[in-house]
Amino acid sequence: MAANMARSFLQVAATEEVASPLRVVQIEGLAILKIIKHCKEFSPALVTGQLLGLDVGSVLEVTNCFPFPIREEDEEIEAEGANYQLEMMRCLREVNVDNNTVGWYQSTLFGSYQTVELIETFMNYQENIKRCVCIIYDPSRSNQGVLALKALKLSDAFMELHRKKNFTGETLREKNLSWVDIFEEIPIKVSNSALISAFMTELEADTPVTQCDYDRLQLSTGPFMERNMEFLIECMDDLSMEQQKFQFYYRSLSRQQSQQQAWLQKRRAENAARKASGEDPLPEEDAANPIFKPLPEPSRLESFLITNQISNYCNQINGVAGQSFNRLYLMKALHEE
């Protein structure tokens, strides 16, 4: 009985551990450097890679990573890519490196990552990994003097809705789901071993000013702002096209309802005449009639993603513009002195 009680306790503890929400993503400094190196080497091309680590309570530990080879969309090449991943994980296991998959990382250009492909990848990972994250790194944003690294996951409410493939307006209102509820950003904590921290402390006193420190003082942010504005305009055009789809749907729905009302009035008048002549009335609804066939409502997923992307571009423009004004005021004060 003691063994059964212990087994039950472990099962309950494991269930509670799995059910605990993800609070923070803890990444080893070496893994971050590998991600940055891989993304910058192939920029502006977009690259991806695998994240390895451990899922411990409310913390997802990312201890290592390896890049995926750049390949074209082909079934044979995709099979080779899958074999490559398995072989890499086997080699890491042989040298006692964590080989548990906890997600993937990918590069982006000016924050353009909120796509249907990203959601589909999340759903594929979720089939085998209950809690996984995607690390997004933006080399173009990092050139502005910040570490553009973020960890994302899909919200539970959105995943439940995505499995049903039902993104109609009525369903979204019932679930109280808006475009800001698609992704959840998880805080990132950088972790290093005590030996690495001691070594970095030893180097810190003698470290000269690097080129990155000078880059933060650059007054020209024109190229970055220009590209963001171009992408923002493209997103606005895409959103306008999505709105036109919904306008066409509502016009078609209104036209169908008018046709249904006209048909019903005609049928009721015909039934009144048949009743007066002693004949049986005809049914008022005819399923075979095309005007009674329900019109499929367009999915709102694409418009949600476009709105999310527009918000991201606006936030980037506001952030860079604010930093630029600070630099200009700083330079103005220096010139006056």
TrEMBL record:
Keywords: Cytoplasm, Initiation factor, Protein biosynthesis. InterPro entries: eIF3h, eIF3h_C, JAMM/MPN+_dom, JAMM_MPN+_peptidase_M67A, MPN. Residues 267-278 have a biased composition (Basic and acidic residues). Component of the eukaryotic translation initiation factor 3 (eIF-3) complex. One of its GO terms (molecular function) is metallopeptidase activity. Component of the eukaryotic translation initiation factor 3 (eIF-3) complex, which is involved in protein synthesis of a specialized repertoire of mRNAs and, together with other initiation factors, stimulates binding of mRNA and methionyl-tRNAi to the 40S ribosome. The eIF-3 complex specifically targets and initiates translation of a subset of mRNAs involved in cell proliferation. One of its GO terms (biological process) is response to sucrose. SMART domains: JAB_MPN (SM00232). Pfam families: eIF3h_C, JAB. GO terms for cellular component: eukaryotic 43S preinitiation complex; eukaryotic 48S preinitiation complex; eukaryotic translation initiation factor 3 complex; ribosome. This is Eukaryotic translation initiation factor 3 subunit H. It comes from the Eukaryota. It is found in: Cytoplasm. Transmembrane segments: none annotated. Belongs to the eIF-3 subunit H family. Residues 264-293 are annotated as: Disordered. Residues 25-158 form the MPN domain.
